[in-house]
Structure to design on (404 residues):
């Protein structure tokens, strides 16, 4: 394992670009719709950073002559002292007394975890506690037994005022009724446990009636009847619809149906998200690799105010053109000559032709007679719609292309 060490690299890893896909994509050598996949600097930098971090965690210095450093790093990180679930901590036992003491310290067990370290408990220290059945013991190093607690309670109740006769009966029941515990447990079993959250309710239907929720539940059942479906999926549970279910066009399908770079007509001044107007602007070929396949120059064609013409490709109708080349407007040339024309009498004109000066002939009253010559001119302005360019009728749209 080694890092890039030729003069084409830089000393600091460039910032990573924004994520272009949240789902894994895979390399291809071309599938008929797009060109060969290319990773770009981000992918190579991430791979190098991950592998260098692995070596660093293992304390291994990259060596260009060694081809097994990643394997050595993984083994070093796992280490010889790793604990395995199947060993049940036998690794610590085998490591000896010192390792065992450290393990107990890390677990907060201290000396209590060893047979030799067990001590008698005090009010300041944990340890072994001796039981004591005396109801009036003043020893604070022993623990009272249930008998000691029971005798002490009885003594206190016996000396209680008459207002506390209930406590006296309770104490007598504890001492004299052998089924007292059984009766108490039976009563407790009839209560609802909070941690069951209603799961221990025996008659749930009656419980719902008592809460007045029966009508609400019936309305909820009828809200989404089981016979109703969405795209063939029964409404008995949550329904998850996919793009296929609703015939939606996903970005992946769109890339196949309309490849990146195809000019399309758009009826507003602003293109939709991830689309660009064909206005001659440059784009980042690394950020938009699919668009760069269609326009290797890194520049979109400027189609504002332009018509698109099919490339000649050897047909010799529009010979000599290159793909994406620009062609100016033009009018096909037409010529003609008129010579030796003589007119007799009146010579009216119409359409694009206009009568000029006359030569010869004689004037009779307000008209002209005899043989004469005349100048004649023609202009499209006389009978056709004219402008500064030759064009058909048209409607203005924006040409746009998908960028990714």
């Amino acid at each position: 394992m080694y890092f890039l060490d030729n003069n084409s690299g830089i000393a600091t890893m460039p910032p990573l670009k924004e994520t272009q896909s949240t789902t894994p994509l895979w390399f291809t050598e071309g599938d008929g719709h797009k060109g060969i996949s290319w990773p770009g600097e981000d992918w190579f930098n991430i791979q190098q950073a991950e592998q260098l971090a692995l070596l660093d965690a293992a304390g291994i210095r990259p060596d260009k002559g060694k081809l097994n450093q990643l394997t050595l790093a993984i083994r070093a990180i796992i280490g010889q002292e790793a604990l395995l679930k199947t060993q049940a901590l036998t690794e610590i036992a085998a490591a000896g007394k010192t390792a065992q003491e450290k393990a107990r310290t890390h677990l907060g067990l201290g000396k209590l975890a060893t047979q030799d370290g067990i001590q008698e408990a005090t009010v300041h220290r944990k340890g072994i506690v001796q039981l004591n059945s005396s109801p009036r013991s003043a020893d604070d190093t022993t623990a009272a037994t249930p008998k000691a607690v029971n005798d002490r309670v009885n003594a206190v109740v016996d000396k209680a005022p008459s207002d506390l006769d209930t406590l006296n009966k309770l104490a007598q029941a504890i001492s004299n009724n052998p089924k007292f515990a059984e009766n108490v447990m039976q009563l407790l079993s009839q209560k609802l446990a909070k941690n069951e959250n209603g799961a221990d309710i025996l008659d749930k239907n009656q419980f719902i009636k008592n809460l007045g929720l029966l009508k609400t539940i019936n309305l909820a059942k009828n809200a989404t009847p089981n016979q109703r479906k969405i795209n063939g999926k029964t409404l008995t549970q949550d329904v998850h619809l996919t793009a296929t279910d609703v015939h939606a066009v996903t970005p992946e399908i769109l890339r196949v149906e309309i490849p990146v770079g195809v000019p399309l007509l758009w009826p507003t001044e602003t293109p939709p998200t991830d689309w660009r107007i064909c206005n001659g602007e440059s784009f980042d070929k690394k950020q938009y690799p699919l668009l760069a396949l269609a326009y290797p120059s890194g520049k979109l064609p400027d189609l504002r105010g332009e018509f698109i013409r099919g490339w000649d490709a050897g047909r010799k109708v529009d010979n000599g053109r290159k793909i994406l080349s620009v062609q100016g407007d033009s009018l096909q040339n037409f010529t003609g000559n008129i010579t030796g024309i003589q007119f007799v009498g009146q010579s009216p004109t119409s359409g694009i032709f206009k009568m000029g000066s006359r030569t010869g002939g004689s004037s009779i009253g307000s008209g002209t007679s005899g043989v004469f010559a005349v100048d004649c001119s023609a202009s499209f302005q006389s009978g056709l719609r004219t402008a500064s360019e030759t064009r058909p009728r048209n409607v203005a749209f924006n040409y746009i292309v998908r960028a990714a």
Observations:
- Strands lie at 130-132, 142-144, 229-230, 233-234, 264-266, 275-277, 343-344, 353-364, 367-378, 398-402.
